[in-house]
Amino acid sequence: MQNKNKTLWKVIGASSLGTLIEWYDFFIFGSLSVVLSTKFFPADNPTAAFLSTLATFAAGFVVRPFGALFFGRLGDLIGRKYTFMVTLMLMGGATFLIGCTPSYESIGFLAPLIVLVLRLLQGLALGGEYGGAATYVAEHSPEGERGYWTSWIQTTATFGLFISLVVILLTRLFLSESQFDEWGWRIPFVLSIFMVFVSYLIRKNMDESPEFTKAKAEGKTAKNPLKESFGNIYNLKYVLLALFGAAMGQGVVWYTGQFYSMSFMKTVMFLHTDQADLILGIALLLGTPFFVVFGRLSDKVGRKWVMLAGMLLAICTYRPIYACMYQLTNIQTKTERLDLRAVETSFVKHGDSHNRVTRTSKTFTDGTEVTQAVTTQITEANNPILKDGMPQESSRTTVFLKGSNYALLVGLIFIQIIYITLVYGPIAAFLVEIFPVKIRYTSMSLPYHIGNGIFGGLLPAVSTYLASNAQTKGQSDFYLSGLWYPIIVASICFVIGSIYITKTMTANQIK
């Protein structure tokens, strides 16, 4: 038993490291979305540029199901190991090249086009990676313990995001703000190639999974995995149930807690980027062990209600949570300490003109600090440059939280991470167990990546658009409008899962 567990830990270590690096590669783009919007898109409309960046980010999710079909088929034909070796190299190469792509100012519309193509390659790679890693670990796990062992793979996505945030924070720490803005943002992308190389060296010495090896030796592998997975109406029913009864709800809960929350802190609460990243990083670090807790719990009580409990809690509490988050930086409800207000003016040369930057710093009685920087384009004579009779100005507000407000925000993000661990911890074991070995890679990958790639991946862009649209219309609670998307999707999934997922759903039922 000791040797078996030792082997399992080696399998999990090798699989998890590669999967973690792939998630890191995939999430660096989302973690730097605010910065990238100024590099690869026209800067004259910041909101449109940010939405374009989110749409490019989402494009990587949209193609994940196609990666699941292509690499899932290869995995069921030639094996799990070699397939996710290919996905690792594809992901690493695409991430490295994003870091090398010239900016919009240098090559114009070629810049967003190149980034879009590379983002699509990332999505295809991730579509093949997760199903392979989860299947590989599950096929090494003993019966009755798959929830526990596969939950370690589930931690890799969150750790990938966590490491992306740490790398970004460290890069910012060692560089000045101007250095990071000019070229430092490329460092997290370029570093990827070294991590991928280490993972490749580890993975190339792994053995094929025992269940697949046995099926191949007995001639029981699928001749046409796609046809056997989706061409049979009975089997297709299980694929659809896995999608609409579990995966799509899990997807929106996952991306609300880890990506919409980050976007919300930076673009709605106007929290300083470093502080928002650190708060999310702390919550991720505190919450990640619960993937294993709920994975093991699902071995004891079943996968269904652990996953559905996370969805139900999210449905019922998202709006109160985000209303509380918004109020933490809402200066309209705070009392300013006028004795601590400070105004500073500086000048920065910008082409043939200058930028006059006026920073007004305010401190409130609860410790919140707000800095508003107004940038005005001026001539040498200190006269504002006019357009349509109005000064050329832009304004940026930055908020810093302290004390109990800071701790409360960490707690509110942590609660959302717990929801994620409930829905995500058991899902790999759930998907593996309802499909047989011969079509497992293909069958489990497709619903997972549609649920996460389509329903989850579109969430940041759709929710940001809904909130922006509500703000344009003057709605007082515009900041809550983006939550309708995850709430509605999770509600539909909860109802379908409650009614149709049963304890008798096993791979033995697939024909």
Automatic annotation (TrEMBL):
The keyword Lipid metabolism does not apply. Gene3D superfamilies: MFS general substrate transporter like domains. It comes from the Bacteria. The chain crosses the membrane at residues 12-36, 48-71, 83-104, 110-128, 149-171, 183-202, 238-256, 276-294, 306-328, 406-434, 446-466, 478-501. It is found in: Cell membrane. It is a multi-pass membrane protein. PROSITE patterns: MFS (PS50850), SUGAR_TRANSPORT_2 (PS00217). Residues 11-509 form the Major facilitator superfamily (MFS) profile domain. Signal peptide: none annotated. Keywords: Cell membrane, Membrane, Transmembrane, Transmembrane helix, Transport. This is MFS transporter. It comes from Sphingobacterium griseoflavum. The lineage of its organism: Bacteria, Pseudomonadati, Bacteroidota, Sphingobacteriia, Sphingobacteriales.
